[in-house]
Description:
Order of helices and strands: HHHHHHHHEEHHHHEHHE
Oligomer: single chain
Number of strands: 4
Structural class: alpha+beta
Radius of gyration: 23 Å
Amino acid sequence: xxxxxxxxxxxxxxxxxxxxxxxxxxxxxxxxxxxxxxxxxxxxxxxxxxxxxxxxxxxxxxxxxxxxxxxxxxxxxxxxxxxxxxxxxxxxxxxxxxxxxxxxxxxxxxxxxxxxxxxxxxxxxxxxxxxxxxxxxxxxxxxxxxxxxxxxxxxxxxxxxxxxxxxxxxxxxxxxxxxxxxxxxxxxxxxxxxxxxxxxxxxxxxxxxxxxxxxxxxxxxxxxxxxxxxxxxxxxxxxxxxxxxxxxxxxxxxxxxxxxxxxxxxxxxxxxxxxxxxxxxxxxxxxxxxxxxxxxxxxx
Length: 300
């Protein structure tokens, strides 16, 4: 059964963890929730349940589809934790006392500590130009499938059409794409909770801060700096030779913080936040987008 529908487990967690029911286990929330739900995920057919669930939002379906099994396991824990927060907020919509705030803030802390959000979406390694060139001539179908940006045509001197494939840098594998999806799914749930928590300034602020923390983790400054270095080392001769190629040509552009599909999956949720403008600015969504052909790394 999907976490949205499994009332028994959620009620059991709430009874065991809420401070009003006895000794508070709030400091142990991260370990308890991750351990129990991790074991539950392995015991039940949770992977299929989460993948096949009929999500109301098509963007959520898209992001869930990109999760690896490890990502689904983490998402399973996040979903249940989000549901516990939502149930508590709805139960005490008008009055949230200190114990409720402590309980909810501990659940938010659990999500914050589940993974290192500041580094989850950062790509390890900084391959040089020659290494990238080699990668683009080997196993190109997998690389292009996961990192495809666009496909256009150019005309050579004789007027013949020459295909151009644009590929995003940094190159992402299935695990990196799963990590991005986990971060974006978590943002969408936190945004939804922020609507539920709008009457409680403390909880609303905690949710907004966590959204901003995850958002900042999507920005990989090290990779962007490395890409800019490769661009600065690119010679005019290489660019001219690339333009004269009469066969299929490849070029790399720097990956935007969010792809078009990712933007569609999260933007409506982000707009619900009290600090929506701040988050949209961090994601590069509140202004004109830079032309993707301004900075291109050419491959011969």
